[in-house]
């Protein structure tokens, strides 16, 4: 998604964010942005949808840290 998209999304003050990523590095980058903006990581799971390859899909859930 990228920092610009994450910051635009946060303006709506969502109670839950479900982030689906096909790139763990992008998830790490955007997770840092979400944490810096006051969200906490509630759960994260990895899914091997493409066996015998290096690809992994990730699903992460975030919610406001103060709520």
Count up the helices: 2
* Order of strands across the main sheet: 1-3-2
Assign a percent range to the helix content: 25-40%
Number of strands: 3
Uncertain stretches: none
Derived from helix and strand composition plus strand pairing, the structural class reads: alpha+beta
Radius of gyration from the alpha-carbon trace, in angstroms? 12 Å
CATH architecture name = 2-Layer Sandwich
CATH topology group: Translation Initiation Factor IF3
- Calculate the terminal CA-CA distance, rounded to whole Å: 24 Å
At the first level of CATH, what is the class? Alpha Beta
Beta-strand fraction estimate: 25-35%
Major sheet characteristics: 3 strands, antiparallel
Average per-residue pLDDT, rounded, comes to 95
Q: Per the principal axes of the C-alpha atoms, what is the gross shape? A: elongated
Q: Helix and strand succession? A: HEHEE
What's the domain count?
1
Write up this protein.
With 67 residues, the protein is of the alpha+beta class. It has one domain (3-64): 2-Layer Sandwich (Translation Initiation Factor IF3), CATH 3.30.110. The chain is 31% helix and 33% strand. The protein contains two helices and three strands; from the N terminus they run αβαββ. The protein has a three-stranded antiparallel β-sheet, with helices on one face. Helix 1 packs across helix 2. The longest helix is centred in the middle third of the chain and has 13 residues, at 24-36. The protein is elongated. The two termini are 24 Å apart.
